[in-house]
Amino acid sequence: MPVPEIEFSEKFGKYYLKFKFYGKLKKDEAAEAIKIWDEYFLKNKNRKIIIIWHCLEMTGYEKGAREIWQKTLKKMSNKIEGIWVITNSSVIRMGASLISLFAAYPIKIVSTEDEIYDNIKNNKMVE
Fold this sequence. Notes:
- With 127 residues, the chain is of the alpha/beta class.
- The chain is 40% helix and 34% strand.
- The chain has helices spanning 27-43, 63-76, 90-100, 113-121, and strands spanning 5-11, 14-25, 49-61, 80-86, 107-110.
- A five-stranded mixed beta sheet has the order 1-2-3-4-5.
- Helix 1 (27-43) links the parallel strand 2 (14-25) and strand 3 (49-61).
- The longest helix is centred in the first third of the chain and has 17 residues, at 27-43.
């Protein structure tokens, strides 16, 4: 199983790609996850997707992991409808804020996955 765990789903007429992180994300793990991410986008060319980064069990990340994640976001920005980060960590929040500088849209941070779906159900998507 790749680290992070990756799950594809559909709810409320939207498509989601959720990454669930554990421990410290290493550069090689990020690269493997991005390959799967890339394959999903290739198979779903005409579909915008909502990205979820579930980081409640994440303790941090290597600089190289963040850098390749940023490059991927930039490359795939036209296929992403929005990004949500689930975390209670100030370190992860800071990293998400840094990554959002390279994204074409804001990254919303919440404490639970249910908050994401409540917002989407009530049409409060990423602005």
